[in-house]
Write a structure and sequence with these properties.
Two copies of one chain form a homodimer.
Chain A: H1 6-11, H2 18-28, H3 40-52, E1 61-69, H4 84-95, H5 99-107, E2 110-117, E3 128-130, H6 148-167, E4 170-178, H7 182-194, H8 198-201, H9 210-227, H10 234-241, H11 244-258, E5 262-265, H12 268-280, E6 288-290, H13 297-306, H14 322-340, H15 344-347
Parallel strand pairs in A: 1-2, 1-4, 2-3, 4-5, 5-6
Helix pairs in contact in A: 2-3, 3-14, 5-14, 6-10, 6-11, 7-9, 7-10, 7-12, 7-13, 10-12, 11-12, 12-13
Chain lengths: 354, 354
Amino acid sequence: MSVTSVAEVVAQIGPPDAGAARKALERLDRLTKPPGSLGRLEELSVKLAGIFGSERPRLRDKTVIVAAGDHGVVAQGVTAYPQEVTAQMVANILAGGAAVSVMARQAGVRLVVVDAGVAGEVAAHPELRLASSGKGTADITQGPAMSRAQAQECVLAGVALASEAAEAGADLIGVGDMGIGNTTASSAIVAAVTGVTPEKTTGRGAGRSNVELDAKIEVVSRALAVNRPDPGDALDVLAKVGGFEIGLLAGVILGGAAARRAVVLDGFITAAAALIACGLAPAAGDYCFASHRSVERGHRVALRWLRLRPLLSLRMRLGEGTGAVLAMGLLDAAAACLREMATFEEAAVSGRGE
Amino acid sequence: MSVTSVAEVVAQIGPPDAGAARKALERLDRLTKPPGSLGRLEELSVKLAGIFGSERPRLRDKTVIVAAGDHGVVAQGVTAYPQEVTAQMVANILAGGAAVSVMARQAGVRLVVVDAGVAGEVAAHPELRLASSGKGTADITQGPAMSRAQAQECVLAGVALASEAAEAGADLIGVGDMGIGNTTASSAIVAAVTGVTPEKTTGRGAGRSNVELDAKIEVVSRALAVNRPDPGDALDVLAKVGGFEIGLLAGVILGGAAARRAVVLDGFITAAAALIACGLAPAAGDYCFASHRSVERGHRVALRWLRLRPLLSLRMRLGEGTGAVLAMGLLDAAAACLREMATFEEAAVSGRGE
């Protein structure tokens, strides 16, 4: 799919197949297990049936798209690591040494790494995808992060990458982030969209002390006061207080939903991206799975707004798509049970003595 | 390992390698991620390092041992399904149609199915392992489930199966159960070992109404009153109110620990087996991982006693080893990160600006 406007991709996102979901629900109770005993895996399998339009969904390949970008707000001293780490970690992910590289390799997940707007020099690598909308965003305490045109540009870049992954056979599309400073932008997005105060959407990120946290909350509050993003206009929120990688990931979510693929969110930053995506197209949420709940404070706020319940709660706070990759195994298992388990009749197993 | 007494296998269980665990802990903080950001995966990886005696543990094969047995207590009307389902489900598991069959296939986990004491006729199958200690236990409301000699026999059968799996290359050994009536026996074991009342150790199993639950609690109370199991003597608890498959799985746990392998528990029944195993050899718990918390009431009580925190909480209540298979992917990921991630130095990534 090649689209030239955000409205075009939004128009392509339809509802999941309710008939297939209903058939899946009926099938679940004929399978050789006590009704409901697979717990949340049953709910996952029904959602997958709706997305893929089959009561016996087959999941082919898995891909995680990791977008990197830098944030001008690091000038406000909100981060524990220097900005150069974004570019260094992109190289590390590509070289196979980052957590997401290791996990994806282990789990048979294809890894796509994108420069969505890194400030520093990213070492050339044959696998690196270039979709940069700028050398890092502007400082959101001084004005908007980016122009509205740039916001559209990074979203459309994400749509294109999701379409490409879907066409290459990916049925599960995970999203992951890398960007020093991006928890600050995400806290601002979550506060802007949900109306919850920055105190409740801002966490430590990779930082440490309470003093630093208070300063970070103040930075987020200032960014919102200076920019006054319009909560009813997701592109405005993205342009005013977002980030290039966040916009690109919002586009991946939209593109995945338009292609009728299952989109697996990661942690806090990808939840902020999902708020942007669902602000543009509420139906996109029907294609999203929340892989885990991180310890980052605003993640819970964002997931509640998205009405998504996380599958894992392992006190992770790394990003990169690590949670998304971990949860893909659970989605695989859910689909496989629905697809391959025998019914009571097929297996000649007695039902309940009613 | 071929052992002829429970005392012999208990004597072979040593502590994990504290030096390797300490080195793993140090290595974790040199890896390219904020300290602690992999959350509980870090704790898992350190435990695996201790078990396998390496700061970079390599996990080879994965096996789940599913033991089936019947329970005389079904005569008291505690179950929703007829007893014949145990034998039918053994056939279904072997034929590949049960949930654990599907999940194990999907996740590349070898499945070993054992008749530990099924009452009905189990259809012959080349893959079925026979280690039956009787055609189902006796009704625990009337007297002991089995003799002390039978209790030793089923534990030793489990030890042998674990040793065999370990010798065949299994580094992760999961345990799973199948047995109509075995939540009743497990509730009695958990109450006997922990001293918690049957009201708090007894759940619905595959049953339905509150009336049935009250009757089941009464049955568990009666079994304890009639048998008076000695909480200080785990073999006595097993013989008085246990089950053949529970004893066999306790043996798998002991055998896995003796072979220095990681043992992955499943739900409530395998937690009861772990209480027996750890009653015999407290150090066995150092080799155990709690895969998930089921909705079965007493599971929480048992895990607290075992001091194990479950990794998943997906409202499952199926048994068969399904939770164990699901969690193996998380253990794989934890070990892989510790083993394969680059250090800050190797990747030339800048550390925190201190």
